[in-house]
C-alpha cells in the first residue's frame, strides 16, 4: 500500500468482501513533505513502486493503478497544489519527455 497504510488493510477488505476484486488506485510517490515533487532519475522511487505493487499483489489485489503516468517537470498540473513525481516527466518547453526509473520498474509488471 504505502507508508501510511499497510497491506494488512487489503487482507481485511478481502476477508469482509471475499467475492469482490481489489484494485488499488491513485498510487504515486513524491507526496511527502520531505520528499515532495519530481526527482529526475531517482531509483529509490522505482524501488518504492515495485515494493508497493508486490505487497498489493501479495495481499489480494487484482492489479495496481498509477495516479499519473505523465506529469510536467513541476509535478503537475494540479488544482490542489499536490505536486508529485511520475514515471514519465514531460518537458513541454524543450518538447521532450523523460522516462523515469519508475517507468522501468512498472515494465516488470506488464
TrEMBL record:
Gene Ontology CC annotation, any one: membrane
Gene Ontology molecular function terms on file: glucosylceramidase activity
Name listed for the protein in its UniProt record: Glucosylceramidase
Known EC number: 3.2.1.45
Lineage of the organism: Eukaryota, Metazoa, Ecdysozoa, Arthropoda, Chelicerata
EC class (word): hydrolase
Enzymatic reactions: a beta-D-glucosyl-(1<->1')-N-acylsphing-4-enine + H2O = an N-acylsphing-4-enine + D-glucose
Record keywords, A-Z: Glycosidase, Hydrolase, Lipid metabolism, Signal, Sphingolipid metabolism
Source superkingdom: Eukaryota
Family membership noted in the UniProt record: Belongs to the glycosyl hydrolase 30 family.
Residue intervals of the Glycosyl hydrolase family 30 TIM-barrel domain: 10-109
An example Gene Ontology biological process: glucosylceramide catabolic process
Keyword Signal in record: yes
Organism for this UniProt entry: Rhipicephalus sanguineus
InterPro entries xrefs: GH, Glyco_hydro_30, Glyco_hydro_30_TIM-barrel
